[in-house]
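Task: encode each sequence below as structure tokens.

Item 1
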Amino acid sequence: MRCVPYETLCCERHVKPPKHKRHKLVEPEMKVEDPGSTEHGNSIHFYCKDDESLVSLMCKAEHQDHEVVPVEVALVEFKGILAANYPPIVESIKKVGSQIEQVHQEVRDTQVSGREKEERLEGERREMYRAVDEKVNRMKRWLSERQSVKLSHLENQRENLQQEMESLCEEESTLKASLKEMEAVSFLEGYKDLLCRLESRSHFSTTEPAPPRLLDFLVEEQNVDSLIQINDNLLQEIQKELVKQVQIADLEFNTLKRLYGRTPSLDPNSANPWVKISRDLRTATPTETHNPYPEHPDRFDRCVQVLSSDCFSSGRHYWEVEGILAAKYPPLVESIKQVGSQIQQVHQEVRDTQVSGKDKEERLEGERREMYRAVDEKVNRMKRWLSERQSVKLSHLERQRENLQQEMDCLCEEESTLKASLKELETVSFLEGYKDLLCRLESRSHFSTTEPAPPKLLDFPVEEQNVDSLIQINDDLLKEIQKELVKQVEIADLEFNTLKRLYGRTLSLDPNSANPYIKISRDLRTATRTETHNQYPEHPDRFDRCAQVLSSECFSSGRHYWEVDVRSSSSWRIGICLNSIGRKGKEGWLGRNPESWCLRKYENKYYTVHNDRGTLLAVPGDPERFGVLLDCEEGEFTCFGGSRVLHVFRGNFLVPVKPAIGVYGVGDSMRFCSF
């Protein structure tokens, strides 16, 4: 209650005493006549800090044990408290305004950053499209060039075989005419000339005609659906005509043989020294050595020939010589058939090459579409992720802005109240409302005596850095694309540098497997054979007798290429082994057991060794580096000397295998190369 005469805010103790009984008591906020006048004729001059009340001169004696100060002093002191003990509300408003602007700027930056990252992602999409197109188109050009070379060779082969066929048909026609039209005597008279002409043809060489050298492109042409049947109708007609002529000739020959048949004998005195005559004087055989015949004026000294002992000057005489056309030379008809078959084979090879080329182009186009799909999937997934993160961030920023705006509204309201209190209230009413104003102001966090903490704006640096790192997927994805494409190409068709770039590995040595006479470098890449025993701790993986060491890496899938520098070693082994290889005694030598495969150098010779079986290799020069390629899925372990393939091991490499090296000369060292 407020005592109007005293203009004091009275507690229960002051209301009850008799001196207030005749005083007017009102609610504190009720306005009455000038509080400076009372029934006592006294005005308010003092303020009691203990009771936090206004005190008139008459009531001052009742507050003699309290701290009572003049109203003017209390007014100055309390205004100073508001001014000195709390941060200026204007500064708080400025700070909150700055924080609101910071939130607005963060929103703008987030939106701009999102657009920039989307543009970068779209740029990466276009770049990866371009890279896919470049690689696919290069492979298509490569296949087209290979196909063109093959078709050109096949066309040359076809032309040569066609010329061969025409020549054979011409000889076949000559032979048919000779057998059909000539009489016996004229045939025999023309036989020598015919034989010379036939022998001048390559078809009648005494050796079997070699098959045409068709290009072997088995790497490209693995799937041949069917072979076209040889069209041998013409050949069959030729055979029928020949058989018909042989039957007629047989009838004439039987008569001729019966009437005029003779059995001549050979004259040894006329035989060339390089011709051996049989005991029955009927067979002449050319020899590689000189036969010691006696000199005779009838002997041929240069011509490999022999005369008959028989001499004719009249009559008709028929004799036969075996092997001249039938036994000594391949049948003409068979030669024609073989060449015809080879021509058909060339035609089929051309058709297969064209079909295979189309199939491979379709596969490459399918790979292109699949790579496009993979690029789209990755980029779109990243864009969705980025959009979701941006939405979350903007949502948090919006809530932060709303909270700060509410803070700003409250500060402005308090600032207005404080200004009105300090500027407009009279002295007594100010002191009466001071405590309440102070309580209300102290209830606001802005007026704590500590510096207000800045707003907790959401910080997404880690996520945004992740976005940046995810955007930098160009190289990795392009490697994946290239690997997908080269899966369709055999290792033998890859350029050596491409193979190293795609599958190169930098291996490290496993110290726990090192033989005690092998020292491992600090970078775990060099193994050196020492003369003294190295103090290694015992380990079940350690080779106790074999001067070898394994790699820390283990492979059971994919393709992996690594190289070993051997310039400082004269006797060594490079290979792979199963983890089950023996470590005790001599059973663990690389290549001496079924669990290991290796390339070996010993006494300046190179070998491949597996299961204690070695094969000598011809290695040009003396390479300083040897490489190996492990293709687990294909089950191949390929050894390279420089860029040349030396040998290919085949086995089951889907079980874990470890690279291994052995260095055997004291002071020698070997090193895994880096990629």
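Item 2
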Amino acid sequence: MKIVKHTNNQLILRESGFSPFLLLWGLMFGGIPLVMLFAFASTLGIESLKCQRIAVDRVDCTLEKSIYFNFKQLPTQPFPLVDRAEYQYTEKPGDDDCNAVHQHEFHLVFTDESRQRLFTDSLQTNCTIGNRGWIQKQVTKLNQFIESETGSIEIVRDSRLTPASIGISLMSVIFVAIAFRIVFGSPLRVSWYFDKSKRELVYWKTTLLQIQGLSYPFSSIDSVTYRIGEDSDDGEDSDDDYRAFYEAEIVFNSGEKNIYLKKSYSESDILPIAKKVAEFVGIKLTKIDDRSSASSPQTNSSDTRDRAKKSLDYHKEIYSKRHECTQVIANSQNFPNVDLRFYNRVQNQLEQQGFSKLADIEDVTITKANRGQNRTFIRMMLSRDRRTTVGIYAMPTSGLIKVLQIFGLIPNVKAIDLESELEDGTFLVTSNLKGLDTSAEVPGIKRQQYSPKTTLDDLLAAHTKTLDRLTRQKRAVYLYTYEDAIEFQHRLQDRKNSHKQGLGYLTPEDVRRSSKPGQEAAVEELGAAIEELKKEETQTEDFGDRPD
């Protein structure tokens, strides 16, 4: 927003709302589903197989087929000299979610033993293509007709109203509608005309669909509100993860909807404009501070204490004991929002390097600490030389989160951890979590962190190089079974637990490492609250140990 004119009688503010990113986002968000919808609709319609008895020993059939929800008719296909119908089952290699794809097909077999497949499905459901029961029923129906003396028969399949077609079509339409609303409804330009001579405000909003102008008398304007708030992220240990923002709006006393002026993460972008409008119209400027205790200068100590206790309790759950791990069946039913293709892709790459799969496990301790949210699993693999385990895991993502990850608005956490143990009880850990894992170094654990974009081959090379160097002086611990790997994980967790317990589980420095720029004051307050809680707990324990 900028002031384009300021005289004794006029104040004009203007904000350009056009964003190439928004246009690109709309085209991606709506265009891709639209193309997919048209492609999918080309398979939906009505298929009608009509068969006539031409002679006692001759049956001719024709197939009438429509697509695009029966809006377009395809040319009729003749099938003369039909001898019989057959049900055929084939099994094809599966993809990342299925070991094999089971395909059920309807075939017309002609008198010369050639054949034609009909009633094919384009969608795969639960690793199956085609409705076995329906196909077998229609095969029986047609064969009974051929063997009888009946003159004609018709077999009809309507693919428009199946649950899958309705669900996919509805979701595509919703995505397209949202994109249309955002692209065509978002303002290209917004202007505010304050005119003292007419004592009125004229508010203009220009979109791709319309130009809207509304006028308000100065007498209906109550105040200009200048508000300070905070944006916070939900997730593990995110109570101290926020950023202050500033926004201004015009408030009416006549029941009209308030007019939003601007939002920014810089106070200097908002406060001067809010003051200028208030002074020009001759109304009050109202400041509202909606920040929580962790970010507001006027803090509420009880809120900060609650944040501190929640963070401290979480770390106690994670670092007070060995983790409970259980083997799981990794499929889309048990883990619906986890990218199984990532697991399978990395597994295939590792198998080419001589690794073998041990198991898919869930860390039940972390699942319980997260109250069942963000449930995921770890795929464990073991190197050919038995010195290194690999943990593969991905954070679960909903459909909307996946869209945001495409544009880089939310980190896409797909982790690969390589871990080895030496005979003196120390460990080597190599991962691709640089910038995402902000935890402190632990004595006895040599940690190598690389960018999430690092290739698997580079991670393996870096880990192997360091491990070879370390094993010149001390032997590596060799693992052979799943049970060996779990005990190895317990020993690694024991070292982390011992270190965290010695520090009191959570320190102000831990909070500082995971904070963002501009949160210094809030971080210091939260850190002080954590230290105060730990001190109180220590005093309580000391008091409880005293003899009566």
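Check on item 2: The CA atoms of residues 15 and 451 lie 38 Å apart. Confidence is low (pLDDT under 50) at residues 233-241, 293-300, 397-410.
End of task.
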